[in-house]
């Protein structure tokens, strides 16, 4: 699939990309208008993830008295976080070290 093979760092299956992103910063979009950015420490075949040094962003949509939608952003920091695979919509890997 990949023409340039960097010492076994090829992507033949989707989880290979996740494997190559171990110890790298990843971005995860979750259900419920939540996003995570953190260092990938571990994963499994169900796409459960363990992230460290995580910044969580939560978007809360509310209506004001004029019935206009206002989006509030809440940011949280977590030292370590377990993400259940079924709650992740998208995982963006920034690439791997060479």
From TrEMBL:
PROSITE patterns: SM. GO terms for biological process: mRNA splicing, via spliceosome. GO terms for cellular component: spliceosomal complex; U4/U6 x U5 tri-snRNP complex; U6 snRNP. Residues 13-98 form the Sm domain. CDD domains: LSm3. InterPro entries: Lsm3 (IPR034105), LSM_dom_sf (IPR010920), Sm (IPR047575), Sm-like_LSM3 (IPR040002), Sm_dom_euk/arc (IPR001163). Component of the heptameric LSM1-LSM7 complex, which consists of LSM1, LSM2, LSM3, LSM4, LSM5, LSM6 and LSM7. Component of the heptameric LSM2-LSM8 complex, which consists of LSM2, LSM3, LSM4, LSM5, LSM6, LSM7 and LSM8. The LSm subunits form a seven-membered ring structure with a doughnut shape. Belongs to the snRNP Sm proteins family. This is LSM complex subunit LSM3. The lineage of its organism: Eukaryota, Fungi, Dikarya, Ascomycota, Pezizomycotina.
